[in-house]
Amino acid sequence: MSVRIIDDAQSTDDGEVQKIRGISDVAQETGLSTHTLRYYERIGLLRIQRDHAGHRVYFPEDLRRIAFITRLRQTDMPIREIQRYFELVDQGPASEPERLNLLLRHREAVQAQLVTLQSALEAIDTKIELYGGSGQP
Amino acid sequence: MSVRIIDDAQSTDDGEVQKIRGISDVAQETGLSTHTLRYYERIGLLRIQRDHAGHRVYFPEDLRRIAFITRLRQTDMPIREIQRYFELVDQGPASEPERLNLLLRHREAVQAQLVTLQSALEAIDTKIELYGGSGQP
DNA sequence: CCTTGACTTCGAGCACACTCGAACCTCTAC
DNA sequence: GTAGAGGTTCGAGTGTGCTCGAAGTCAAGG
Fold first, then answer.
1. Which terminus of chain A has fewer CB atoms gathered within 10 Å of its CB, N or C?
2. Could you tell me the fold of the domain covering A1-74?
3. What is the spatial distance, in angstroms and rounded to an integer, between the CA atom of B24 and the C1' atom of C17?
4. Contact B124/A113, CB-based, under 8 Å?
């Protein structure tokens, strides 16, 4: 994966090294399948550049976006809302208040999830103890 | 909902009062839809008695089972595994070790979920702070 | 030149957990 | 005895988030 067409080889202010990746590398690193990566792109969560052969070329920026998408998915944010979030991102800085809002609302949801999950875990533990199970002492 | 046909009006040892419920009461109380309650029965998670009119009659025991099913669903146990669990329950006490095992394994999964969720929450909080958001101080 | 293999697009298919609708039944109240 | 509410069964439909397969392209190695 060596790419030269890309003129936009940005070097970030912290002197980050540009490691450009093909889709299977990225699949490896992120734990997502190539299918899923392409799917995310199809539905507009990602916009990935192509090399001269038309192959996808992932920049560190893309990897960071993928990582964040993964976090949002792990907390069950619906794809639609993630789409909304990245629409806002792609609209530039003017949308920051709305993005913040979206994230704050989502955080509430995640905290609620945590509460539900913890109380369900307690219920399960109670049941386990009922079976005389080795609950953590 | 007054029922007399049911000869099996068990009074539990702690003198629990028999409050027998129709499906819509139960839907109300549990937050599940009547559709879902019937669905759970179809797939074998519940076996609910009928009154003389063929209407479902829920006993406290059934409500407790429903509550536990809900806990398992809240923690993303797949329906298949919940089916398995209640197959074991319905097989009587001999299956208790296996039930315990199933629950212990599920607890592991839930704890993993909690860890994932918490670390994703941190990531989201970090992003929120990046937006200058009012994270909890 | 030819094979190999990793990539491309596109539409279709799948698994899961419900969710709904049609057609029918039955109790209660008037 | 008829209306209406609320139940019944059954099969089919829905939404979400992937997941897959077919058919084609491209560049490198032998």
1. C
2. Multidrug-efflux Transporter Regulator; Chain: A; Domain 2 (1.10.1660)
3. 20
4. no
